[in-house]
Design brief:
Structural class: alpha+beta
Number of domains: 1
Shape: elongated
Amino acid sequence: MTLSIKAIKIMKLALLMSVTILFLSACSGHPTAGNWSIKSDSTAAISRIEIKFEGRAVLSKHGDIKDDYHCFWNARSATMITLKCRRPGEEAVEQYFELAVSDNENAILTDKNQVVGSYIKQSS
């Protein structure tokens, strides 16, 4: 059984379109990705959150950079991520946080179901 040149071209085009759609659908970012600053009415120890697209994050405390948490995150739902964090010099100690977005501008950071602080997303 031989295929015509037209049928082969159609199959190639269909395959190319399928692969393109797969790549495009996998590239949408999580709504938590970006930079978050503490809300002015919050007294949380963590003042800034930076969620990077590739699965890394930094939770910055007030003061020295050595107090920052360096984290890996994964999506728990469409609006929540779990952060697995460590501080420099304390690699054996892991701390887990969750960041939940209530809308595209506001988020809550929790530690063991206790609210750490409220944050607002910074514009790019």
